Queue: 3 jobs
Job 1
Amino acid sequence: MTTKKITKVSGGEDTAPQKPTFVPTAEAKAQAGKFRMYGILLWILAIVAEIVAMVILFKKDPEVALSTGKRIVLIVFLLIDLVLLIAGSFFWKKANRFDPASKRNELKFLFQNQLGVGVAVIAFLPVVILAFIKKEYLVGAIAALFMIGGGAASADYKSPSVEEYSAQTSRVEELTGGNNVYWTKSGTKYHIYEDCPHINTNRTDEIFNGTVAQARALKNITELCKTCENRAMKEKGLTNGVETQPETAAPDEGTKSESEGQ
Ligand SMILES: [Zn+2]
């Protein structure tokens, strides 16, 4: 006990009852920023390729068919457009794994994760319309096909979210007391134990070790290994399904029931 006056500084309050929210590290943020820049740059180049194709089409007389050579040049530019679009979307989706959006704002979440689909429309719809106006039906059909294919390749089917990262990190922390997981180059799950039979095999010669967020960002691994989860629960004295609170429970126990999006 001290007789000195204790002044509680604002901001230093115990924030434990609040659900821990995932915050990307400065490094992850920087990585995400870099990948977003690559993505946007590639998308801009895709639109430049589209503009070149449009210029060729624009100059064309709708009543006179294009020469085969010109048509091939057109299709080549559409192909370049497609490749750049998909490459841009690849980096964009990668960036979102380093710095995911929050589901709290549904519209922003959808926009950030599916932006590539919108870019696919921008990168192809104008050229589709112009091709049909100019009666270049084959080119128009190819461009429409590229728009659909490029859009499908640009969509994010496993959109990462802050909430998911938070819940998964809390789960591992709750089970192990730390945020430390293992994964392999070709695996699809992250593991709590480095000697888990799924990764400790003859086929594996390298095991990666890091946080849940790193497993997600670097390898796009979205799931915790069930074998590891069950083993950790057993070791912690937790029974499957109904969880009894062990004596050494982490202070964030109880946040689990509030966690959403799971
Ligand atoms: Zn495992």
Job 2
Amino acid sequence: MLRQLRPRSSLIQQSPLRLLATCRQYSIQASGASTIKRQDIDPSSLTITKTTTPKETLPPTDLVFGRTFTDHMLSLEWTASEGWLAPRITPYQNLSLDPASCVFHYAFTAFEGMKAYKDSAGQVRLFRPERNMARLNKSSARIALPTFDGAAMIELIAKFAQLESRFIPDMKGYSLYLRPTMIGTQRTLGVGPPGSALFYLIASPVGPYYPTGFKAISLEATDYAVRAWPGGVGNSKLGANYAPCIVPQMEAAKRGFHQNLWLFGEEEYVTEVGTMNLFVAMKNKETGQKELITAPLDGTILEGVTRDSILSLARQKLAPEGWIISEKKYTMKDLDDAANQGRLIEVFGAGTAAIVAPVRNISWKGKMVDCGLKPGEEAGQLTLQLKDWIEARQYGDEEHEWSYTVPK
Ligand SMILES: Cc1ncc(COP(=O)(O)O)c(C=O)c1O
């Protein structure tokens, strides 16, 4: 619960329903099955309480990812009996949750990562926000957290982004990282569907991932742990998917690698890298045709918005030039063979944070697979081209349906 809005002393003698109506605590006992029709999000009931202590904005070049936050947060509470309560924008503040809240014990948490950009006319834009909302709904539903009307939530996020627009530097490469988060708040140690939940959105101004130009990364293929498996939850953006990845990431870092590459199965299928999807450009073994390959959506990888954008752009702009665009399974051996036979053109990661991250080499089975960059080169031509195409749509240089212009 938002601490300053919770008059604790007034909670004690009231009935749970009355409590909800007056102060909306986040940790409640669910009232069980209900016949009341649950309400969806109602953007018209938004209330805004502005901060009285606005923060100073940092010089853009001092921004560090996820370290500083804007003045406000958006929050909406949900109960199984009532549905979504009125949305609120309030000053950014601590949450106060009962220590028995199910989020702390059973990882009832799903989240998103998206950005707001400022275009050359100073207008705030979101990039394919409906995709993030659809993914959050899918992730939430997978762990019995509530779902919501995506369009209504985008309306609220847009209002929030507009309110915080002074935090978005109007320079290419800069943006406001938005973190929509859903947590189960029911106070119980029983393992079951949460009877109450909280959605909140916080935001952090960010600079370009590579402030001084691209720096190609080195990967370590992880063969002693798996991130996801068929029938699991690797395709959902759940908090529970991320904590277990840190130790393999630290192990890779210890040996001097930037990220670890997740393989799957005896065949060592290449899946994804850190918090990015992976793309490989190589010449096809049989035809010699150029092929852009990424792993298929088989449930073991996250359905990245950047991944989808790259595939779509490649089908539109590269396929007519003779490229094959493939979503298919490929193994670490396929990649190594292509490198050995001089067929590997480029490898790059793709995600909201960096857009694209060029890969120099991959450590696998004690050897180094060279991913095709020339000495001294930090990014391949295709990687740079794709970044430009995506940025043009994110910053509104190319007017496109992927860009959602926030009303002023
Ligand atoms: C595991 C994982 N894969 C891929 C991605 C890339 O997804 P997106 O392009 O939507 O940022 C992310 C980042 O959200 C991620 O956490």
Job 3
Amino acid sequence: MKARWGVHLIVAGLTVTASCLVYSDDLLLDGPATGGAGGATTTGVGGAGGSNTTNVGGGGGSGGLSPDLGWPLDDTLPTRCNAQPADTGASWTGWGNLQFPATIDVTAGQTSPTIYGRTYQAGVTDGAGQASGWEAELAVGPLGTLPDGEARCYSFLPAAFNVDVGNDDEYEITLTPTQPGLFNYFFRYRPPGGAWRYGDLNGSDDDIALVEGGRMVVAETKTAPAPLVVATLNLGCRTADWSQRRALVVESLARIDPDLIGFQEDCAEGTGPTQSEEVRSALSSYTRRGYDRREVAIEQVDLGGQTYETRLSILSAHPVTNDHWIQLPHEAMPAKALAVDVVIRGQPIRFYTTQLENAPNLVDVRRQGAQEIAGDLPSGAISIVTGDLGAGPDEGVANVIATDVLRDAWSVANPNQAGPTFPASSPLDRVDYVLATKALVEGALLGAKQLDASSGSTWLSDHRGVAIAFTVP
Ligand SMILES: [Ca+2]
Ligand SMILES: [Ca+2]
């Protein structure tokens, strides 16, 4: 049981199921690779007393401040999945693929459609029937991670020979996932004594790639309320020893097991991975969850003689059903907002990340940007706007977005803490926000914390991140 509920819960009398807080080394898939996953554990919250309406103070300014909620969920760092042992098999000339299907949608506990893969070695598979002694396996792991190399959190399930197709041997398998989430799947093959050859949808000749992997969405079946954890973090591009900061970012996020993360200043160097792509695969190795990822490019920047492309990006542990971005007014720095739509326990949720102008004198530009976002909010869905708004609460930019629809979650969760986020090492102002639909903030807020990991004089970023936990009914 990972969830630990504090005494300051403002949602009383709920039975909460900790759906995403089970940590073990397997992917909770039926098959030989699984073992003792353990289901979700249920705990009674109780103890909070009171009603669902909260006395949050602020706003009207009447009444005393509520106590700070802090972070009532367990934030110990989960253990990582073990790395796959090094492959000592002999290399061989041949080919393999994932034949079909490219996507699978199932519900936890349901058996998948049959999944097919084909392999070829000249003079071997072209004989009648299965090539002698060959093995084929389906590899299933968190969406956004690959099954070769270290392949943490992958399950490998033996497939059965199906039929000869021309010169190829075709294998088949079904699986029954027991845990909801987002997964990639691939096939792999080996002759007796050979190394595994991995195959994706366009075959192994160009190796395997995430975009050519199968995508499996296992829908959740839970009806009980569960925590919804969201976070925002300005990654500060690839500066200030990113390789060391990356571990701090991943560790901070792994401790809170977020459902949705909004990043700003997420940078790539040339055609290399973005920071959020690097964070995604490492985070999965702790949380056992796969993540959909969306991004929108912002600008080219030169930092320390190096050119980077900055972007806004979002990681979602729930399937993204739609995404869009909006252009915001700007002067010094191009500004946009990126949004994804997800459905969590039946609730449509729109999640934004943004970064507004940060020059002190550009107050009006910030306010115009905030108005654009306010005008984009959907009706009939929960809205959560996260990001670096470039100014502290005193400037009131957050209120322009929030109007009477959203509320600033930090100020409600921890009314006795100003919670400055920038600069990280000795923060002066709270410029990083989570604004969410009023009913969620006032009726379903569990807690708030900063993402503020540091090691020696190195901080996870030049900003501290902000994490907010809600309960989704
Ligand atoms: Ca054959
Ligand atoms: Ca390929």
